[in-house]
Structures are given as C-alpha cells and as structure tokens.
Amino acid sequence: MSFYTSLNGLKNAQTDLNVISHNIANSETTGFKKSHTQFADIVAGGALANPKLIQGIGSRLEAISQNFSQGALQQTGSALDLAISGDGFFNTVSATSGQTFYTRNGAFALDGNGNVQDGSNNILQVFPTDATGAITSTTLSNCTIPATDVAGAQFAGLTVADDGKVTASYDDGTNIVVGCVAVASFLSPNGLRQLGSSNWAATGISGAASYGQPNTGKFGALMSGTLERSNVDIAEELVGLITAQRNFQANAKAIDTASQISQTVINLRT
To answer: Which residues are in the Flagellar hook protein FlgE/F/G-like D1 domain (predicted)?
Structure first.
C-alpha cells in the first residue's frame, strides 16, 4: 500500500511543479494570472468502520485555482495600452470565428480597417454612444474608428478616458466619441476557462458575464497608457518550487524505503 500512497504523492508533486513552472514562465506575460494547486487527503474506511482504525492512503488533486489579484501597473504612454484598475475584464470578439474572449491584457492597436484589436484579430467591444458620449444601447459592438469624419477630415489621434469613452480626433479639430469600453464581470471568475494568450472564456461555473461602464459600481477604472503586468511573485514561486521539489524527493524516498523493507522480508523468507 505504501508504494501506491507514495506514487500518488509523486504525481501530485509533479503537478505542483508543473503549475509553478507555468507561473514562472509567464512572469513577464501581460495580463497573466497565476494559479496554485489544492490537494485533499484520501482515507480508506466504510460507514461501519471503527473511526480509530481508518487509515490514510495518500492525497489527490482537488483543484488548480486561478488568482485574479491585481498585477503591477506599468506606464507605456501609448493611448491604446489599457489597464483596468480594479475588477473586470476587457471583452473581445474574434473577427474570424466570432468567439468571445475575456482578458486583462489591454495591449490594443488599430488595424487597417480602423478596428481596435489585440494583435490576434480579436476586436475590442464597446457600448454604442451618441455624439455627446452617452451610452445608447447595452448591445456591444466592435470598436471601429472612422478614417474620416463627416466633413472628410482625416483621422489624427485617439484618447481613452478613465470612464471608458473612446474619442477620435480629426485634423480639422473635430472630436467624436466612437464608443465606451465595456467591462465584463463574473459571479465566479475562478470558473473561467483558460484559453492561452491571457484570454478566458465563460463557463457554467463562472456564470454569464455582466457588463458595465468603467469606474462605476463594481467595475474598475480604466487607465490609458498603462498595461497590467503578470501578478506572479517570483520570490514566492521559487519558495514554492523548492517545497514541491522536497515533497517529490520525500515521496521518492518513501518508495525506496518500502522497496528495501520488501526486499528484506523476501530475503528472510528465502
């Protein structure tokens, strides 16, 4: 039995090492959120067993939980580098597949069609607004910047306010609010499914997204010219890495000890 108990320990230690290694590898990934492993013990005993005689038979992986705490904010100076100070996610939609993504990575840029997108052809979603910036609908739309205004003036620049309003400027001095960045919130963000590239998708565990304007209610404020760095603490991860390594070594030693005892018993009987 000790062989299988220690084997479970080895597998769990390997999983712990994998998760920590993944965190360290993404310590410089914009918008990345670290994960940690949770284990639970296993006992062998039925309903009628004497509770004083129930024996533990190892541990099992219970969950790999994500930590959505705020990462450090880094100033970049680019108007389309956006960060959420507080709770919430940017909402993007793939221009090719139509799939919806949620992300904390606000490194956006304009493409040739005037779409504000993340470099993977996923377009930022906004609330439609009127000329004064008032939200006119809760149905999200692509954040697209017209190349010219109604007078034919050429696009000159873009600003994003902390309340999410995206304003396009033109060379005749005209300013037009083209939308308000929508921030998504979830009842259980730990239930979001990781998709890679700092993107997540909603699941039945996370619940459906609710949307709101930045800097209102439970939705965080928007910061232009800023990116959110990974929330990985390298020192903390290195300590965890050493602990997981020692755990792996201890379980391997337990298997070796059990093997020696078994060999001794075999030798005595022969």
So the answer is: 83-168
